[in-house]
Model the fold of this input.
Amino acid sequence: MADIKNRYGELVYRIEGDRINDKYGDWKYTISGDRIIDRYGEWKYNINGDYLYDTSGNRLGELRDLAELLES
Done:
């Protein structure tokens, strides 16, 4: 289990297995290989090394920015 915190240090999401849950435990996203998929099955982001990319291949930021990206 890993916590995902925003830039203020507040818990926003928690990774539990292949799921990303919000701070209340509600399932929001799934990690499938190098992809992050929302709970409706829509592919949202790619993970490549320490960076996140959108589905078109545009670099969005580093993994440490994941909380801000998922909140937007």
Summary: The beta strands are 2-5, 11-16, 19-22, 27-32, 35-38, 43-48, 51-54, 59-62. The mean pLDDT is 90.
